[in-house]
Every structure is written in structure tokens, then in C-alpha cells.
Amino acid sequence: MGTPLFLSHDWVQPIRRNKMDLFDKFETNSELENDGVWLNFGCSKVQIARLGGSNVEWIKQYSDEVKKLGKTGLSSLDFIEQRELERRIFCNSVIKSHQVKDETGEFVDGILIKKDNKKEIVPFNTENLMLCFEQLPEYYLAIKDYADDYKTFLNSQVEKQEKNS
User: Fold this and answer.
1) Alpha-carbon separation of residue 81 from 77, 78, 85, 86, 143 (angstroms)
2) CA 20 to 30 Å from 144, out of 10, 33, 128, 131?
3) Does residue 90 contact residue 55 with C-beta atoms inside 8 Å?
4) How close are the terminal C-alpha atoms of the chain, in Å?
5) Phi-psi label, residue 115: left if phi above 0, alpha if psi -120 to 50, beta otherwise
């Protein structure tokens, strides 16, 4: 008789019993959550910290902004204002660095935006990043998904990378 076959929590993908435990599957690395990991989208590279988790900078900025709003908190803002505030906090506390490919195909520090219908690489800063995310909302959502996913910051991922180095 071979290794028993179990189904994953979503009852779709079969998984094999292995020696992983809860810590292997769920323990995140607080250093990575604060200092960040690099994502490579092919045309851009982004260093991101965790959205939440143990990202001290995000927790502080988010708390400070909510306190400024008083008792009503985020509910005092309309949808557009709330989205802008959340993106600003995200840009200031989650995005650590941003690179794009220049005309030679090399990665350079900066952000690609459109000005007067022409693409332009501009310096990496909050305002330019906010403009990029306004022009490319799906790019923002893709990065946010990684920043919000605990799997991006797992200790087991770090150990795998160290073994492959």
C-alpha cells in the first residue's frame, strides 16, 4: 500500500501526506514582512513589505490615519477618498523600491507613467507611484494581492531560496 492520498481544504487538489507541520505552512518571517521581498513582473520589479502582518510601518501609518479621522474612522470618507487614503498608506509603507525597464531593456529605479499619452520613466516616490496605480489599477491590485498573501513571506520560502542559492 502506498502513501495515503488526502484532499486539500478546497476538495479539488489532491495532496500527499508529508512531514510538514503547521509552522512549515504558516510561520512567516517578520524580517521579510518589514524589509520586503522582490517581485519580478518581467517589465518591472517591485520590493514589497507585508500589507499588515508584522509590518510595523504599515500598522503605524494606518493607525495614525484612522485616529486623525476621529470616532467615525474610515466610514467618514466617501469611496474615492477611502481608496486614495489606502493607496497612499500602501505606497508609503508597503512599496520599498520600484524598477522598470528602460529603452535598452535594463532595469532602472523609477516608475513608468503616461504623460500627454507618452510613456515616461519618472523617479520613484509616493506621488508618481500613486499616479501609476491610478493609470494602472490592475497593477496595483496584483501587487496588493502579493503583499496581502502570507505565503509571500513564509519562513519555508526563505529556507527554499537559501537551499537553491
Assistant:
1) 6, 5, 6, 9, 20
2) 10
3) no
4) 37
5) beta
Residue where the block lists cell 508597503 = 94
Average pLDDT over the chain, rounded to whole? 87
- In Å, what is the CA distance from 143 to each residue of 45, 46, 67? 10, 8, 26
- Cα 17 from Cα 7, distance rounded (Å): 10
Q: Which pLDDT value is given to residue 104?
A: 96
Q: How far is 101 from 125, CA to CA, in rounded Å?
A: 17
pLDDT digits (tens, 9 = 90+) for 83-129: 999 999 999 999 999 999 999 999 999 999 999 999 999 999 999 99
pTM above 0.90, yes or no: no
Residues 6+ apart with CB under 8 A from 7: 13, 14, 15
Strand, coil or helix: 51: coil
Contacts of 93 (CB under 8 A, 6+ apart): 49, 55, 57, 58, 60, 61, 62
